Fold this protein.
Amino acid sequence: MDTIKSKYHETLAATVIKNLEKRQMEGYYCPTVEDAEKLAFSFLKDGQTVSFGGSMTLEETGMLTMRFCLPISGDYPKDIAIFPDGQHLASINHDGSISFFKINYEKGLSSDVYFMSTNAITTGGELVNIDGTGNRVAALIYGPETVVILAGMNKIAANVDEALSRVHNVATAQNCIRLDKKTPCAITGACADCLSPDCICNQVVITRRSGIKGRIKVLLIGESFGY
């Protein structure tokens, strides 16, 4: 990344972080995905349960698979129970093997730490998310003791209106194409404010403040990830 863009990301992130703090959320700037991964895992403690919301950012950064590749010894917590997709509980065994168990989406709400991304974040520090099933935004709102959000700098928008437009016309259209949904946006690339049977814009959540100080931690990565 060129020096100017890197400096811009750092400066913009500082503004967002300052405004997140006003809203009782913690913000961090991580120049690289490696920095973000190290910081994200530093929030975990031995014996905690961890759940993940569906996210291309988590997939692209390797967060969904990195824990399984880590050695059981070292600087990272051991024996953490992980819900990789909100449906399967994966237990890390002492010998390094992984045991899987079928669970329900609701189990993610009782996890200690919930990893997710956000569809957009305003420079004023508001989180904007649109969800299909609702399990991701449900965990953001209530349940897990700690919510850790990883987001590329491409997710930042000037205000809520711009953020909503970005989600509807950029993120949702690409997600519908990825999921092979038969929605107008998957066909035209533009939101039609549809009520299609395949619509994934079912829950619109704007998080303007965290009721519990420090519960939501936003890690801004100085790269582009997700849609």
